[in-house]
Design goal:
The protein is mainly alpha-helical. It has one domain (3-116). The protein has six helices and two strands; from the N terminus they run ααβαβααα. Strands 1-2 form a two-stranded antiparallel ribbon. It is globular. It starts with a helix and ends with a helix. The mean pLDDT is 88.
Length: 144
């Protein structure tokens, strides 16, 4: 773990996003890998105490995805960070992006039971705003 990662993980937004992501991965892992051997994660974020008493218990595959996502989030070059689906810079490897998209689509609708209703509403509103902006840009490009 490098000092840059440690510094980034002190940011409240990075911690919030990492915790949210861990909850989503937990939901996905519980439903898809319930019979797999699972243990408390030992990612760099977990070792820094990012998850507090809510350290996720995941299978090895899901822990690898979470560790990758922690690093991607910590070193996101955008400020403010947009939702990855709405970003013009795709910093995830293709196979990770596919896995994350699948996991988010599965876990997102179930996340309200984990206390993420407000995050879900923010995401829906942001997505609506983003779609309107894309439609406006498309209309402007078509008018040229």
């Amino acid at each position: 773990m490098n000092d840059g990662f440690v510094e980034k993980m002190r940011d409240a937004d990075v911690v919030h996003d990492s915790r949210l992501l861990a909850d989503f991965v937990q939901i996905f892992c519980d439903e898809h890998h319930g019979t797999s051997a699972r243990s408390l994660v030992t990612t760099d974020g977990a070792s820094l105490g990012v998850y507090g008493r809510k350290t996720p218990t995941l299978c090895a595959e899901c822990e690898e995805h979470l560790a990758y996502a922690e690093n991607r989030r910590a070193f996101c070059p955008k400020d403010p960070k947009p939702f990855c689906a709405h970003c013009d810079t795709h910093c995830y490897r293709e196979e990770e992006r596919i896995w994350q998209r699948e996991m988010m689509r599965f876990s997102g609708p179930k996340s309200w039971r984990k206390g993420h209703a407000v995050d879900g509403i923010k995401h829906v509103l942001s997505a609506r705003k983003w779609r309107r902006e894309m439609e406006r840009r498309s209309a402007e490009a078509g008018a040229d």
